[in-house]
Design the sequence.
């Protein structure tokens, strides 16, 4: 049973991790990943994250279902924030629980690669000079990372 | 059908969405993008580089050759940059 949330509010990685394993005796491995907003060398005032409501949750659910098909997972949590996010603040959280570490690590890695290329979110940079900057361009390296899992 | 626009596609068109009624001759996502580009100056700008525009039909990713028949909702957006 996966937990999937898209929200403007911050989240508590520790509490989310504990919720995934609370009361269980079968989990031997818990991997968590937290993505943060960088200041890009001091020039960024904030990132603005736009998303496609309805599809964002549905697409994350499809990616999670694919991860559950590939690895024997005991629990998955994915949280992605939207709205304006300041440097240093959390953007995304992925946690995977499994009996052993290999599927937990692999599934978390896979989930992040697929979220970046398939979940309908877009980042716009706001600079310290007060100007609304550019939309972040998709990176070829993210596409390459996602293609690692093909075949 | 209901059309939604996101990120710079939305900014270039100047609105978040609208009802569209493509003719029956428009059958695939790629043909729909070409038809959208002909709707006016702001649409031509938004769709000037059609191969980088992504399409979702009823909130699921669709390939350029996917048929649009039966879809109630279509969305156009740039490659995603979340995570």
Sequence:
């Amino acid at each position: 049973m996966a937990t999937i949330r898209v929200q403007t509010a911050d989240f508590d990685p520790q509490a989310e991790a504990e919720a995934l394993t609370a009361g269980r005796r079968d989990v031997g491995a818990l991997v968590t990943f937290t993505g943060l907003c960088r200041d890009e060398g001091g020039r960024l005032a904030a990132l603005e994250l736009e998303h496609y409501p309805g599809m964002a949750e549905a697409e994350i659910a499809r990616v999670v279902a694919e991860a559950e098909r590939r690895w024997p997972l005991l629990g998955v949590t994915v949280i992605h924030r939207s709205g304006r996010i300041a440097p240093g603040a959390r953007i995304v959280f992925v946690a995977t629980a499994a009996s052993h570490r290999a599927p937990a690590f692999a599934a978390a890695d896979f989930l992040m690669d697929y979220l970046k290329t398939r979940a309908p979110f877009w980042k716009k940079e706001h600079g310290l000079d007060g100007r609304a900057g550019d939309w972040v361009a998709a990176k070829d390296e993210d596409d390459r990372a996602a293609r690692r899992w093909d075949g | 059908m209901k059309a939604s626009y996101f990120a710079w596609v939305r900014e270039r068109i100047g609105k978040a969405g609208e009802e569209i009624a493509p003719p029956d001759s428009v059958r695939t996502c790629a043909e729909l993008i070409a038809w959208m580009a002909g709707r006016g100056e702001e649409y031509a700008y938004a769709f000037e580089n059609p191969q980088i525009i992504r399409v979702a039909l009823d909130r699921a990713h669709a390939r350029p050759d996917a048929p649009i028949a039966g879809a109630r909702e279509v969305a156009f957006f740039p490659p995603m940059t979340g995570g």
In short: Chain A touches chain B at residues 35, 49-52, 54-55, 58-59, 62, 80, 91-92, 112, 115-124, 135-139, 142 (CB under 8 Å). The mean pLDDT of chain A is 95. The longest strand of chain A covers residues 73-81. Chain A has one domain: 2-139.
